[in-house]
């Protein structure tokens, strides 16, 4: 075949349509037209809304890991802050509770001290303040230990009172501390006076917890012994110190009659009394000088004889 007869035009399969420059110009003009139309007439707003609605689930799923990570970090930070705030609040609450307890305890001690000083003012007996350290270790006795001893001028036999009344008597003295036997101890006895009738008697300590009824408890009571069955004693009578023993000043409150048992087979009545002093829980006390120390000395037997001889010589 001669070369002049060959067709140099591309076959239909390789036809590419308009040129690249023509297409660039067309699409550029179309893009410019769409931009101007969108700015002026907002013709693409519905299309954008539809596309945004269609793509929202995909965006939501794609953002979940980041949102969960941020929420987790915020939750842990908030939890740590909440725990710290709770710990601080608990510390403040504990501190406030401690301060409230201290204020209440100080108020109670202040009230007791005022009562004790008022009781001290009503008696002219010299006294010395002391503080109860602890109870005695013997479970079968009713005794306490105070912080005053021989070096403070304490001696055996001195009466001890608190803000409510007679607490007991010093029975053992050491250099720095002393032992006080309470009025409810079985070995303690105190002369008392019924403030209503003026009748004198002796109250004995009874620490045994076999007392039934009334206001008494296992801490012990006082019992008026050897009182006739028909004696004029009523529940609620106030018993005070009589002062006849030369130890306790007269008029100090001791106990209050709580229960009376009169039996036909006995000539004596069982009279139980509740001590007014804090036989348990006493903190501040007063140690009094005995009444006998304030009395003038008894004249010696040789004094009258000497005075008689002196008169005879004159």
What is the C-level CATH assignment of the largest domain? Answer: Mainly Beta
Strand ordering within the main sheet: 1-2-5-4-3-12
SSE ordering:
HHEEEEEEEEEEEEH
CATH structural fold name of the largest domain: Thrombin, subunit H
Average pLDDT rating: 79
Could you say which structural class the secondary elements and strand pairing correspond to? Answer: alpha+beta
Could you explain the architecture of this structure?
The chain is of the alpha+beta class and 314 residues long. It has 2 domains: 103 residues; 168 residues, Rod shape-determining protein MreC, domain 1 (Thrombin, subunit H). It is built from 3 helices and 12 strands, in the order ααββββββββββββα. The strands form 2 sheets. Strands 1-2-5-4-3-12 form a 6-stranded antiparallel beta barrel. Strands 6-7-8-11-10-9 form a 6-stranded antiparallel beta barrel. It is rod-shaped, with a radius of gyration of 51 Å. The model has no long low-confidence stretch (mean pLDDT 79).
Characteristic terms for this protein:
6-stranded antiparallel barrel; alpha+beta; 3 helices; 314 residues; 6-stranded antiparallel β-barrel; 12 strands; Thrombin, subunit H
């Amino acid at each position: 075949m001669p070369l002049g007869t060959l067709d140099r035009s591309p076959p239909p399969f390789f036809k590419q349509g308009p040129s690249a420059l023509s297409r660039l110009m067309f699409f550029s003009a179309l893009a410019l037209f769409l931009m101007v139309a969108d700015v002026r007439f907002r013709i693409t707003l519905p299309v954008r809304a539809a596309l945004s609605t269609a793509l929202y689930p995909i965006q939501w799923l794609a953002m979940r890991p980041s949102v969960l990570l941020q929420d987790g970090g915020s939750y842990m930070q908030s939890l740590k802050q909440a725990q710290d705030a709770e710990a601080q609040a608990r510390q403040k609450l504990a501190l406030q509770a401690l301060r409230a307890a201290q204020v209440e305890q100080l108020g109670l001690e202040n009230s007791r001290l005022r009562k004790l000083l008022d009781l001290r003012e009503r008696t002219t007996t010299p006294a010395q303040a002391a503080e109860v350290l602890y109870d005695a270790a013997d479970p079968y006795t009713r005794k306490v230990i105070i912080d005053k001893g021989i070096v403070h001028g304490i001696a055996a036999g001195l009466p001890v009172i608190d803000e409510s009344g007679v607490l007991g008597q010093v029975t053992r003295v050491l250099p720095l501390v002393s032992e006080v036997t309470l009025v409810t101890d079985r070995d303690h006895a105190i002369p008392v006076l019924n403030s209503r009738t003026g009748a004198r008697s002796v109250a004995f300590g009874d620490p045994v917890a076999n007392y039934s009824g009334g206001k008494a408890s296992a801490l012990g009571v006082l019992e008026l012994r050897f009182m006739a069955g028909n004696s004029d004693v009523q529940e609620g009578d106030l018993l005070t110190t009589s002062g006849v023993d030369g130890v306790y000043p007269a008029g100090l409150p001791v106990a209050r009659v709580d229960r009376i048992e009169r039996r036909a087979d006995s000539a004596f009545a069982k009279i139980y009394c509740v001590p007014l002093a804090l036989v348990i829980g006493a903190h501040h006390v007063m140690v009094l000088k005995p009444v006998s120390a304030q009395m003038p000395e008894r004249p010696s037997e040789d004094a009258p004889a000497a005075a008689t001889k002196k008169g005879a010589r004159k």
